[in-house]
Amino acid sequence: MDVGGTGRDRRRAATIAEIKSAARLQLIEGGAAAVGLRAVARRLGLTPPALYRYFDSHDALMTALISDLYDELTGVLEEIRDGDPDADVGTRLYLVAAGLRIWALGHPAEFGLMFGTPVPDPLALNHQQRPDHQAAMRFGAVFKELVAQVWAQQPFPCPSDNDLGPVLLKQLRQRSEYFEGMPPGAIYLALNFWTRLYGLICMEAFGQLHWALDDAGAYFEAQMLEMGEALGLDCPPPDWE
Amino acid sequence: MDVGGTGRDRRRAATIAEIKSAARLQLIEGGAAAVGLRAVARRLGLTPPALYRYFDSHDALMTALISDLYDELTGVLEEIRDGDPDADVGTRLYLVAAGLRIWALGHPAEFGLMFGTPVPDPLALNHQQRPDHQAAMRFGAVFKELVAQVWAQQPFPCPSDNDLGPVLLKQLRQRSEYFEGMPPGAIYLALNFWTRLYGLICMEAFGQLHWALDDAGAYFEAQMLEMGEALGLDCPPPDWE
DNA sequence: GATTAGAGTGAACACCGTTAACAGTTAACG
DNA sequence: CGTTAACTGTTAACGGTGTTCACTCTAATC
User: Which nucleotide is closest, CA of B35 to its C1'?
Assistant: First the structure.
């Protein structure tokens, strides 16, 4: 496919890609703090002000980098999801969750930049439209869709509306459309799955589990089994890792 | 109590406290990025090089600040734990967990600095001796001790050694002494409690739950109930918040 | 009272993100 | 085609940062 209009636009797009690639290398080699405008420019043989032709500021470059990382991770997970045509939805969910962990452990600097940085101001007016937030939403949607498919294929036992308090119930109801018609109790379990998976992977990737476990892999698998059971899944295939 | 030797040493200790206090104010007002040597010095009416009489580097100041924050948080949780002499151990655990959440939400900048920063290199040789790591261990011990007391008072049903895989079992056994003789299955559940609590609070404090919940309080309570049940606890008192 | 350790200063260095004014190249248009 | 405009890159500079060094002054010590 021959994308990109005139020669100039293509060259421009290529340069932008090179800048982000150089920033990515800096990130990998020296962490988020090493991704400086000057360091990136140096790597490309450019002077720092030249980068301002392509990004409004250092922050804009970081945002673009984060967006790309989310999209890359989303792509990886989608490939895992669609990898085996014979796999059932539950197995896909297992594999994607494990895939997220592997990606996080294999890309600690990237993962730290994406998930370790506290969200600046989630209540800002333009936050919803920010490209990094949208990329994060596309990423989260992978899990949401899988859980919704698990539910659609075989509804799992979940708390009744009475079990959830009225306050929580009201909030979960508001997300019913996004969760493709799942009842509040099922959304609650989906949220449960996500928060546990997130906490687990963050703790391991950020090294906050070393005091308790040398290799958190086995613990992760055990937790995944518990979480899968809550969603009515059978045991996952034994060939993980 | 009259601690501190000669007048000079006392003055020095007081200055160190003032520096950390100024750094804390900077942290609260402008986030971790605003805690600069120059900004702190400005607040104290000093020149930046003066701070080097008290801290080896900017990083050393940050480390000391983090250690203090951990100790402060630990103190707050200990006060909550020992607040009501009539409360049973399970209630204390509930209250302390809820207290951690409240503190995190009430001190977002401090919490972000403490927990949002990925641990630099947990495998470094001197990592164990670093003061911030030790303070973090003291903090974690509050929860560990409470769970151990819950177990000692009324052992809760937990996975058998066979349920846990051999790999996980071996690692949990190594932590048996630290967990005051609890069996591997019970340590597994204690770890479970901690990782879920950690993930939950981090996600809420870092604003990564806003897409799903406007007010995560009710969700937190529901999760705490589940987690308490896993530890054999009764319902917590209704007067939370 | 002389000596010495400590606290604080000003000047300087190297780095950072960012802006402005300027030059060369390349596409578009009459 | 020649002109014009837009785009890409430069150099110079500003204010900011953490950090070091040489220096002064003060206060505790022998």
Answer: D17
